[in-house]
């Protein structure tokens, strides 16, 4: 027997209203039964529409492809670990679905979508394949990408975390290339961009930056293609490279900035977020000062971190400055474990390494974390 939690969240993030935050459906049963029940439950909640092409007599569906949802659910069953007693979690936000299972991917993230399968539970995988509930071994992610592209929707993104021992699939529900997107991309016609580069520009327009792993996930291409495409965008002045090595990422360059609305431009200048550590509420300042006068216990530090991130979204750099701690130590000792426990979450889950990544306290656990 397995457990699947389906959580409906109003809007695109956890909300603070304790009377109207989320609804949860707790499902328990066999794996085959859970896939069918979860699929039906989520499908009924999804926005549905139909398109009738000119000259056609039969309408086509317009929304998240059913095979993508089913494959994502099956993937969470096949590749989950049973070494920890945790449920598979499906969170339905207003703009996306996140399906998380315990157990990180046995394949490196850069190899996801490449033919070949590394299966944690071979017997379970065989059952799903023989019942035709799963795609051919090693082809599930490629199939999801192809179907989302055919539906003109943003390809699925994946996050595999060894620290959290968790794998997450994110499915965005809005159409990726709407009429406005196509019109906006037409401005870059003189640059002779390929389809993968255009996809990246839309992502940057929405999120503000992109890195190599995200580009690879969006387009399902090999890393050599990722580097070539991004360097080409950089050489054309469309993107600007930041960071070094694994921390490399790209932000809008001079050419891209010309076509971004003023509020979306991401120049390197101080922001309100960067000023917030000097604007701490008096109550929080007092707690930090009192804890600092004596030896600050781990419990005190955790409480302060959660209260800080409940007050406002804060980056690792800001938290380290406020608490006077080394960033690497703070992340490994407190931030990562709190994320693993579901008490902190990313503000930009689509790109964990986003240069403006920050943390917020998860409202689902708000009443428990201050005990």
Automatic annotation (TrEMBL):
Matching InterPro entries: RecG_C_sf, WH-like_DNA-bd_sf
Pfam families recorded: HATPase_c_4 (PF13749)
Protein name as annotated: Uncharacterized protein
Lineage: Bacteria, Pseudomonadati, Bacteroidota, Bacteroidia, Bacteroidales
Highest taxon listed in the record's lineage: Bacteria
PANTHER family recorded: GLPR-RELATED TRANSCRIPTIONAL REPRESSOR (PTHR30595), SCHLAFEN ALBA-2 DOMAIN-CONTAINING PROTEIN (PTHR30595:SF6)
């Amino acid at each position: 027997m397995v457990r699947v939690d389906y959580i409906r969240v109003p809007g695109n993030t956890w909300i603070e209203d304790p009377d109207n935050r989320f609804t949860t459906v707790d499902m328990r049963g066999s794996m085959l039964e859970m896939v069918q029940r979860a699929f039906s439950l989520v499908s009924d909640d999804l926005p549905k529409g139909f398109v009738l092409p000119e000259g056609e007599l039969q309408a086509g569906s317009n929304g998240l492809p059913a095979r993508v949802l089913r494959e994502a659910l099956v993937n969470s069953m096949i590749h989950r670990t049973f070494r920890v007693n945790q449920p598979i979690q499906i969170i339905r936000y207003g703009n996306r679905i996140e399906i998380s299972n315990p157990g990180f991917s046995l394949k490196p993230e850069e190899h996801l979508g490449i033919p070949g399968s590394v299966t944690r539970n071979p017997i379970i995988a065989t059952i799903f394949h023989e019942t035709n509930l799963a795609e051919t071994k090693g082809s599930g992610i490629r199939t999801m990408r192809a179907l989302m592209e055919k539906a003109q929707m943003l390809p699925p993104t994946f996050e595999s975390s060894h620290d959290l021992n968790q794998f997450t699939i994110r499915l965005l529900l809005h159409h990726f290339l709407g009429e406005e997107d196509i019109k906006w991309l037409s401005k870059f016609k003189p640059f002779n961009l390929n389809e993968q580069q255009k996809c990246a520009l839309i992502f940057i327009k929405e999120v503000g930056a992109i890195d190599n792993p995200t580009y690879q996930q969006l387009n399902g291409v090999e890393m050599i293609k990722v580097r070539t495409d991004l360097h080409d965008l950089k050489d054309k002045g469309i993107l600007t490279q930041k960071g070094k090595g694994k921390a490399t990422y790209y932000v809008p360059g001079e050419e891209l900035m010309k076509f971004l609305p003023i509020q979306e431009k991401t120049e390197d200048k101080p922001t309100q977020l960067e000023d917030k550590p000097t604007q701490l509420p008096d109550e929080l300042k007092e707690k930090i000062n009192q804890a600092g006068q004596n030896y600050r216990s781990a419990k005190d530090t955790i409480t302060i971190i959660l209260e800080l991130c409940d007050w406002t979204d804060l980056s690792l750099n800001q938290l380290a400055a406020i608490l006077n701690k080394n960033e690497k130590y703070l992340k490994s000792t407190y931030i990562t474990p709190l994320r693993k426990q579901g008490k902190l979450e990313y503000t930009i889950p689509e790109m964990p390494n986003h240069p403006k990544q920050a943390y917020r306290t998860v409202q689902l656990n708000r009443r428990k974390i201050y005990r």
